[in-house]
Model the fold of this input.
Amino acid sequence: MKNKFQLPVHDDKATIGRKSVAVECEYPLGGTVSGRKHNRCVILPPNVPMIADSLERRNQNWIAQANSATDLIIQVGDSSFHLHKLAMVSRSEYLNRLVFQKKINRESAVDILNIQIENLPGGTKTFELIVKFCYGWKIDITSANVAPLYCAAHFLEMSEDLEEGNLISKTEAFLSFLILSSWKDTFRVLKSTESISSWAKELQIVKRCSEAIAWKACANQNASSFNCEYVECLNVKTSNMNNSEDSFDAWWFEDLSLLRIDHFIEVITCIKRRGIKSKILGSSIAHWATKWFSQVTLGLDKVTPKHMTLQLRRVSTECLIRILPTEEHSVTCNFLLHLLKVGAMLKINPELLCVLERRVALILEQCHIQDLLVKNHGENDPLYDVAVVLRVLQSYVCGMSFNPVPKLHNVGKLVDGYLIHVARDANLTMESFRSLVEVLPQNLRPCDDNLYRAIDLFLKAHPYLAEEDRTDVCRVLEYHRLSQEARQHVMNNDRLPLKLTTRFVLLEQVKMGRSMTSNGSNYRRTNTQTVIGVSKDFERRRMSGQEIKMMRKDVELIKTQILELNTCKIKLQKQLKRCSC
Done:
């Protein structure tokens, strides 16, 4: 239950001139409102010049029923309040001035005055409470309406200069009590200021709430820590964006995630000033991104007009990047990649995109494959967004000259593992895959076996690629950079382009020829193949000239057979084209 503050209580027998007397005040035993007990303060009516029997509503009209007729109409939004000048001007310096000016400009002083109030904080609901207060009726002040009421009291200049115990002092006292005593109500107050943002900032409500939240959060920063689940920004579904063992989920993350971006920034700034751990700060920012971007993407944000949604996302993303803690490991690589994806899609400030790219590139050597996985959710999109990883790798290559060789090899292994993971996706385009394959220089890989495996998986997932495209994808494969096992697989792999397998067969024959020439071997030939076996007893002897000639003939025969196969293939392709026409 929310905290409730009551003032003043209307007494039907009250008379003009009755003095204010405090009867009872009750406050909760604990600082947080749990629903078992709430704040309550009951006060008898202060001195009021006029008592209204009731405040009736008729459609959009509010009419104060009293012994005398109403002589003042105040228009607030779409509602009209038929009131008495005496009751209202005695509490509001602002209304006092307007009524005085109206009287000066009118010939008759007895006519009903019409006043229109624009931009009143809180609108009609808040003004209804103010009217009841001015007539001496009981009003209920809660954490949800105290901020609009406080701002409206300042707007109408309802200060102690006019009457002791006026609305500004009453709301100020309750507001201070809530901020100091109740964590949940502080958030309710902060949420209630979203519609009165300028007034709330000018009157320091946002700052006071933010500092109170920061103080309580930092005082309990070691109270608990759990694994934190992050969400893909701008994606409909959620996923575990942080696999780090050092992730945190402080008890206050969920409450902060309900705040609007400007209030969230204010709170985070206050928390940062108090020196909270950078990992906790980074986790809270990621948790907020989870909640907020999900609401916008799922269409749960009903308040923001559609034409403003894009701009709001852009501004929010830029703000998040600017407030990220700079300490190492304060935020995960995966979260930074999601943020980079969002920023690229929204076309935010290019300098901020570069900041993210460089930051991920700096920690790339410590990353795992799972850290690079950023999902897409479009029907025809690849499962993972490889473009965002490509941007980071390009940034890494630009600055890799400063890194030692072992770290470079770590990145090469990481990228090859990533390629193996994404190559199975049938929606991954050849251009994207080829760009990932070619982005790293050759010296970053001590061996190309994993690269070959990734290419093979890609060709398996894309069986309808043309021969030219398959050749284009495989052009990075070099015979001398593969292990013997991988070479054997290449020569027997019918998914690879024929030109590549032929080259590998010839190179293998040459290698075997050199090996036999230097080490000696047993050699025999069948009708379909040449079988070369190295002698098990490792006897060193030179091959005879006849054996070498026979090997050369075999190589030439293989070349001739390959050419014939290519000729047949071309003829068959032409025939198929004619049949299809």
Notes: The chain is about 50% helix and 10% strand. The CA atoms of residues 223 and 499 lie 65 Å apart.
